[in-house]
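Might you be able to check the backbone structure tokens below? Thank you kindly.
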Amino acid sequence: MTDHPVSEPPAGLVELVEALLLAADEPLSLEALGTMIGQETSPELIELALERIAKAWEPHRFVELASRRADGRQVWQLVATAAVAPYLKAGDPGRAPRLSRAALETLALIAWRQPITRGEIEAARGVAVNPQILKLLTERGWVRSLGVKDSPGRPEMLGTTRQFLSDFGIDSLDELPDFERFAGQDDIDV
């Protein structure tokens, strides 16, 4: 964020931007905030409101305004800090179980080789894909159908979602390490 000639955003803008960030399911860009607010609010005024929000939350060690790059643009989100993690863990006994090795291998193949069909996953792993694994990955919001492949049987093509990127802390698939580096290691068997 940069210095602006305007010293104060219009009345209510800081509170509105803060409420939008709190209510949003995902990080918001300046463009998204501008669309939501409307009324010809300039990006500079929204940035100024974001600066005020960051300063307001700064003394509180449990919430912060986080910004990062996603899909080539800057996005913002109010997030709980690491200091809150033990409390969240204690309060969420229904946390999803850890993924099995088979589920992790399947997810890795989908992420690295998408679009990929179930048959291609089975060929790479050497075993049949349990339908429950694909159901689990879909329910978690990490995998989705990308359509059908133009080949005999018209198999469904699978790929990852924005939720996958967000949950795994990456901005794009380009940030994944080189697949071939990992494919032959002892701890990853695909």
